[in-house]
Amino acid sequence: MGWPSREEAIALLKEYTKNENLVKHALAVEAAMRDYAERFGEDPEKWGVTGLLHDFDYERYPSLEDHPFKGVKILKEKGYPEAMTRAILAHGDHTGVSRQTLLEKTLYAVDELTGLIVAVALVRPSKRIADVKVTSVIKKWKDKSFARGVNRQDIEIGAKQLGIDLREHIKNVLESMKKISSELGL
Fold first, then answer.
1. Those residues with Cβ within 8 angstroms of residue 37's Cβ, 6 or more apart along the chain or in another chain
2. pLDDT tens profile 72-91
């Protein structure tokens, strides 16, 4: 079948994911993936749908034993490409799939960071991502009790694997998310 269209990816995401925050996470990752694809001279559509679908199975199969394995099985049954399914597997260290391609490294690098940026936006008085600055994210980054569930080491490793300074990486993902602030409800 090849790569799904964005419409197909959104439909699959919404079929499996009813939690609006998880849908918004997928949209945030999609936005960052699209922008990085353009930056790296890659296909924004392919990278975007990979971002949209990276966690589509998480709500139904949240355990490390199941996610993202069950989702990848579904995607493979639909005939989606190995480049996509491998990137989705590689976004979790527990899968044992090493990150080799730029697509795989980028998905890993942006995934956790989008969550941290949302958390920073939500503690702003305005609760608007437009009011978030890189310095705000760095300040909250240093507060280990803030957004405890966000694995900062994964973000650092991801930026390093991309060969991008951490502050620049934060800026890139923040700018991507600001472009879709209305979709994110921020």
1. 43, 44, 46, 47, 48, 106
2. 999 999 999 999 999 999 99
Structure-token pair, residue 93: 């260290």
Q: The whole model's pTM is what?
A: 0.97
Spatial separation of the C-alpha atoms in residues 43 and 35, rounded to whole Å: 10
Structure letter (DSSP) for residue 43: -
> What would the pLDDT profile of 104-123 be if each residue is shown by its tens digit?
999 999 999 999 999 999 99
Across the chain, the runs of DSSP E, i.e. the strands, are none
Structure tokens at 110: 């942006």
Q: Kindly list the structural domains of the chain, giving each domain's residue range(s) and its CATH number in brackets, ordered by start.
A: 6-184 (1.10.3210)
Element (H, E) at 151: none
Name the phi and psi angles at 98, rounded to 5: -75, 150
